[in-house]
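Consider the tokenized backbone below.
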């Protein structure tokens, strides 16, 4: 009977730990999350960061739009729509935003682009000090690329034209000391490899939908932006693209544990008969 009781206890503890570990949604394994802007508020001018760092951003002119798609559960319910003219999100500068290697994950759906445009920008190049610092996901008609600065130069890896098809895509980029890699919908882009030194911190805020200093406004949709301190593996990318089935939240698990406790008490009582 003690063996049965111990089995119940272990199962209960394991279930609670698993529920707490997955409470915030799909998270990459083995790296630390810096910020997660899901854009699930559906209204208002604050882009809340659900990570422990609470790096909330300000939404300027961008509008929420419903993007529910049963075939893409990772998208959630809402995305932000950017018009290519005057829409963006701004997150205040913070040292946490420039680790040695950054892992970037975001969903996007590009509209027509007239010129250069930035989906995500940590102030690389013009207007920032140092010039060769920061990182970005930027594009121009026919190509989308991830870029970072190591203090001496910029290092770039592009996706090619296939992402400008008016469809949703997941882009994951590892930039910095450990790697320069890009994945599109779980597929690695050719040309990735070791990094060229760590990202150099600059004085810029973080922007979604524009470049810090020269505009380059993005036209299209962005959803579920995540930044990680460290490089994401292909297995992590697959988990972000195909999230596992939802795990009961802690409140539900507590009720479950109480149920297990009742069963255990019943078994204990039976053992005395």
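A designed sequence for it:
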């Amino acid at each position: 009977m003690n063996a049965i009781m111990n089995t119940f206890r272990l199962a209960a503890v394991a279930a609670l730990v698993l529920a707490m570990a997955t409470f915030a949604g799909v998270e990459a394994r083995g790296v630390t999350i810096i910020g997660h802007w899901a854009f699930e508020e559906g209204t208002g001018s604050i882009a809340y960061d659900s990570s422990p760092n609470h790096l909330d951003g300000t939404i300027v002119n961008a509008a929420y739009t419903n993007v529910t798609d049963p075939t893409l559960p990772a998208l959630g319910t809402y995305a932000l729509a950017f018009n290519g003219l005057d829409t963006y999100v701004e997150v205040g500068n913070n040292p946490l935003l420039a680790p040695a290697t950054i892992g970037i994950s975001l969903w996007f759906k590009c509209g027509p682009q007239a010129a250069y445009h930035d989906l995500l920008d940590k102030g690389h190049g013009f207007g920032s000090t140092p010039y060769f610092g920061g990182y970005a996901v930027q594009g121009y008609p026919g190509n989308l690329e991830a870029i970072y600065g190591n203090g001496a130069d910029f290092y770039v890896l592009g996706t090619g034209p296939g992402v400008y098809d008016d469809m949703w895509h997941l882009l994951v980029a590892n930039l910095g000391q450990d790697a320069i890699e890009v994945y599109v919908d779980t597929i690695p882009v050719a040309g990735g490899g070791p990094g060229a030194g760590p990202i150099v911190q600059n004085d810029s805020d973080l922007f979604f939908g524009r470049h810090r200093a020269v505009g380059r406004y993005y036209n299209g949709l962005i959803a579920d932006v995540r930044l990680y301190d460290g490089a994401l593996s292909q297995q992590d990318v697959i988990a972000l693209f195909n999230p596992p089935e939802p795990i009961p939240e802690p409140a539900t698990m507590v009720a479950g544990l109480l149920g297990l406790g009742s069963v255990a008490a019943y078994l204990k009582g039976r053992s005395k008969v």
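Confidence is low (pLDDT under 50) at residues 1-26, 247-273.
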